[in-house]
Fold this protein.
Amino acid sequence: MRINVTFRHMETSDPVRSYIEEKLPKLKKYIEEPVEAQVVLSVEKKIRHKAEVTLIAKGITIKATDETADMYAAIDGVMDKLERQIKRYKDKIKMHKPLSGRERRVDKTVFAAQSIDDGHPEPSIIKTDSFQVKPMSVEEAVMQMDLLDKEFLVFTDDSSAEINVVYRRKDGNYGLIVPQA
């Protein structure tokens, strides 16, 4: 497990780093290799200690955050949240078999807003990303969207092989966009 620890607004602390390096490998029993953990520890206004952890493993990305008055308690809290999320994810996909070879590649482009507002005929591109869209059920897509704390998720429906979009509505429910031919 690769662990990247970043300290923000606080001094680098070897005891805190070793505490994290002791706690994170316990999560390896739930997720597959390779695992990369990105940990950001920060102190705000000298009393709010915040721990953010992003776990990246084969087929899953999980984020968790906890904030308390003590850094060690924040680390313990974020580890508990990660463990609950991983267990919930594993329970939901226990019977699901991955469909290899049916992934699609999707490109995402971000445009500059001022290029559209100024009346330019061509908007300027800020960023372009390309990522794999793996086949999954709607329920698994909603779960993955919740784990990543995103507002929407593009995925390939495992039953129809069509690209769909699931999104979070303002009323707290979920919406599904299915393309029509």
